[in-house]
Design brief:
Layout lengths: L13 E3 L2 E3 L6 E6 L4 E7 L3 H15 L4 H4 L2 H17 L1 H12 L3 H21 L7 E2 L5 E9 L2 E5 L5 H15 L2 E5 L6 H13 L6 E3 L4 H10 L5 E5 L2 H13 L4 E5 L5 E4 L5 H13 L11 E5 L3 H14 L18 H16 L3 E4 L3 E2 L5 E2 L2 E4 L6 H4 L6 E7 L2 H9 L6 E5 L3 H10 L4 E4 L18 E2 L12 E9 L5
Parallel strand pairs: 7-8, 7-10, 8-9, 10-11, 12-13, 12-19, 13-18, 17-18, 19-20
Antiparallel strand pairs: 1-2, 3-4, 5-6, 6-22, 11-21, 14-17, 15-16
Length: 490
């Protein structure tokens, strides 16, 4: 019997007010296994009326004197740590469900879950450390500030890291005392619903966490337009980011934070250890099948080592094992769905026609599921499709450069600004590049090194606001200023 046939799917309904319920319309939608393109479950599809119920539950949970609002901050921390304990306990089951639903290799998901538990514990420890200031003001006044939760928050997450993106959003929102409605991507709702069950088991009060599977144009739009939602946190495409800002303007001017697309540069100088650089660059683009918003999808290599780098990069791509994500040793499973495959192959063909040299890959694997060959392009110029567009697939694009000034200008010549990296033994070059590149995160002699403590987010069309770290809490808190007049100045 196939491994995936043994995985039990326990939760397929909406999670509203600490209960799993059918959508009011009874509508469902199929969830597809990307390994074979077959349906693995039918999940309740939230409509506008379900959004109204979930928002009402979250609003009630946030009301003055509610159990959640009356909870001591340190007790919020205990709940988050209990949630982390349950994540630890259920790592195996959650990892298998994630692999089934998303096609991510099982070993990779297990490793990711260790990080996600640390994120919950980080925010669990931060709950009673959110505080305001006292401010020396003119005159006889005494001034203090309070940090207060924004209120009801809608959180809309993508399919590339289903558990991870949920934890990135849940952690700071719950730490700050908000209540929330989480909308997972329609491709990958199963683990979000499993996490919902864990929040109930952990003891979060009714209405604090709600999870609504559904489609963006229906469920997501209703959340973004709802006048009782005070903030939207979104991770996804830049095009949808534009829409969410429009929805904010059309409704109650709700706060918005956006983590959007990227076309991140990874710059390799000729003094780098070439084998180490090849390894870092390979993982920077092929990790998670290339389905990574901050992927190092423009690999700039200095001219003196360019040819040798390309040769070694091609060898490494050819050796990458693609297949069943439950199989040991597999590094790359399927892409998430057919539209993703179509987009990758379209950009590959455009780039070939524009003169990019296809060194390896560039085609679909088999006719079952959504597998794409690890692909490497050399001889790429800045205006080719593979150098301009966010491919979101296993396609390494290698460009040549001569000088640091040249590569800085080229690295910044993009609408995006999510991340960047540099590999060099020259600390001056590393710091000059890190200071000059227009990006929210920069990695030196590593790539995609993200921890609970490090804020993550972009600039330009990659969005604004932060996930992770203490900075992420700013998006879930309001600052209230309180002035007190004293009879005398002290």
């Amino acid at each position: 019997m196939a491994k995936n046939a043994l995985i039990k799917i326990n939760y397929t309904k909406l999670f509203i007010n600490n209960e799993f319920v059918d959508s009011l319309s009874k509508k469902t939608f199929p969830v597809i296994n990307p390994v074979d393109g077959e349906a693995i479950a039918n999940v309740a599809e939230a409509q506008k009326e379900d959004v109204d119920l979930a928002v009402a539950a979250a609003k009630k949970a946030f009301a003055r004197k509610s159990p959640w609002r009356n909870l001591d901050a340190s007790d919020r921390g205990k709940l988050l740590n209990k949630f982390a304990d349950l994540l630890d306990r259920d790592t195996k089951e959650l990892a298998e469900l994630e692999t089934l639903n998303s096609g991510k290799p099982l070993a990779a998901v297990i490793g990711e879950l260790e990080v996600y538990t640390k994120i919950l514990r980080y925010y669990g420890g931060y709950c009673d450390k959110i505080h305001g200031n006292t401010i020396p003001i003119d005159g006889n006044g005494f001034c203090l500030t309070r940090k207060e939760p924004v209120g009801v928050v809608a959180q809309i997450i993508p399919w590339n890291y289903p558990i991870g993106m949920a934890i990135w959003k849940l952690g700071p929102a719950l730490c700050s005392g908000c209540t929330l409605i989480l909308k997972p991507a329609e491709q990958t709702p199963l683990t979000a619903l499993a996490l919902a069950a864990l929040t109930k088991e952990a003891g979060f009060p009714d209405g604090v966490v709600n999870v609504l599977p559904g489609y963006g144009p229906i469920t997501g739009e209703a959340l973004c337009l709802h006048n009782d939602v005070r903030k939207v946190a979104f991770t996804g495409s830049t095009d949808i980011g534009h829409k969410i800002l429009e929805y904010s303007a059309k409704s109650n001017l709700k706060r918005v934070s956006l983590e959007l697309g990227g076309k991140s540069p990874l710059v390799i100088f000729d003094d780098a250890d070439i084998d180490e650089a090849v390894e870092i660059a390979h993982n920077a683009i092929f990790e998670n099948h290339g389905q990574n918003c901050c992927a190092g999808s423009r690999t700039f290599v200095q001219a003196a080592i360019y040819d040798e780098f390309v040769k070694k990069a091609v060898e490494k791509a050819k050796a990458r094992k693609v297949g069943d994500p439950f199989e040991a040793g597999v590094l790359q499973g399927p892409q998430i769905d057919q539209p993703s495959v179509d987009k990758i192959l379209r950009i590959v063909e455009e780039s070939k026609q524009q003169g990019a040299r296809l060194e390896t890959g560039g085609a679909r694997i088999g006719d079952k599921g959504f597998f794409v060959q690890p692909t490497v392009f050399s001889g790429v110029s800045d205006k080719m499709s593979c150098a301009v567009n966010e491919i979101f697939g296993p396609v390494q694009t290698i460009l040549k450069f001569d000088t640091i000034e040249e590569v800085i200008e080229r690295a910044n010549n993009t609408a995006y600004g999510l991340a960047g990296g540099v590999i060099t033994k020259n600390i001056n070059n590393a710091l000059v590049f890190a200071n000059a590149v227009e990006a929210g995160s920069v990695w030196i002699n590593c790539y995609d090194y993200i921890t609970a403590q490090t804020p993550f987010g972009g600039v330009k069309k990659s969005g604004f606001g932060k996930d992770l770290g203490a900075d992420s809490l700013d998006d879930y808190l309001e600052t209230k200023t309180i002035n007190i007049m004293l009879p005398v100045k002290n």
